[in-house]
Design brief:
250 residues; alpha/beta; eight-stranded parallel β-barrel; 8 strands; globular; binds 2-phosphoglycolic acid
Length: 250
């Protein structure tokens, strides 16, 4: 039985003070007994938030692939692990697009994260042009195989995959439950092919891209959708709590 997971990607939003207030409001409005919940704020807020999160986990939005050294402006997985961070979003389409992150770099980041006991939330997904050209499965296959297929089965069980169609991120245009389910089932079949059926059955696959209180129910009713990676709606406590309730009831 896969434990459901709801992850909030705050992106480059909130001040540290706002982040602590928002965290406390989230703690008050949800009860995380049967679902894992993780909040991923900007790096600068992690330590303050750790003090107030209780059962909610802390995640970062990126890390570097090297242990340490002359990489001005970067933050290592070791640093994140040392302050109690448990998850790290890797390969978000904004990082692939605006920061030119490559499959090879992401593979190194995944390894660095796992070696410091951080669980990667590894993002994959196609652009609108790729979907229109019906090459989305091939795009996703390449993203996953180039950065994850080298892992041992024991390590893949620590990874969470997030399917985030680029055309649905921040656009208000959500994938239909059927479209999302089709890709999630495909991702699970890829894990079976590259690892084994136990790994495929156990891995958590989140949907991300314009998830809101009003569309969460249909998405979470799908058998291969194990939770959500929520951007914009995670900055609003009542929306986030509503999404949480739908996941909990699914
Ligand atoms: P969105 O972002 O929910 O605002 O579409 C999701 C994400 O980028 O992870």
């Amino acid at each position: 039985m896969r434990k459901k997971l709801l992850a909030a990607n705050w992106k480059m939003n909130t001040t540290p003070v706002e982040a602590v207030e928002l965290s406390m409001a989230v703690v008050r409005s949800i009860d995380t007994r049967d679902i894992d919940v993780v909040l991923c704020p900007p790096y600068t807020h992690l330590t303050d938030m750790k003090q107030v999160l209780g059962n909610i986990s802390l995640g970062a939005q990126n890390c570097h692939g090297e242990e340490s050294g002359a990489f001005t402006g970067e933050v290592s997985a070791a640093m994140l692990g040392s302050i109690g961070v448990e998850y790290v979003i890797l390969g978000h389409s904004e990082r692939r697009l605006y920061f030119n992150e490559t499959h090879h770099q992401l593979r190194k980041k995944v390894d660095a994260a796992l070696s410091h006991k951080l669980k990667p939330i590894f993002c994959c997904g196609e652009t609108l042009d790729q979907r229109k050209a019906s090459v989305h499965q091939e795009v996703i296959r390449q993203q996953l195989e180039e950065s994850l297929s080298h892992l041992e089965p024991v390590s893949i069980s620590q990874v969470v995959i997030a399917y985030e169609p680029v055309w649905a991120i921040g656009t208000g245009e959500v994938a239909t439950p059927e479209q999302a389910q089709q890709v999630h089932a495909f991702v699970r079949s890829l894990i079976a092919e590259n690892f084994n059926t136990e790994a495929a059955d156990g891995i958590r696959i989140l949907y991300g891209g314009s998830v809101k209180g009003s569309n969460a129910e249909g998405l979470f009713a799908q058998p291969d959708i194990d939770g959500g990676l929520v951007g914009g709606a995670s900055l609003n406590v009542s929306e986030f709590a509503e999404i949480y309730r739908h996941l909990s009831a699914s």
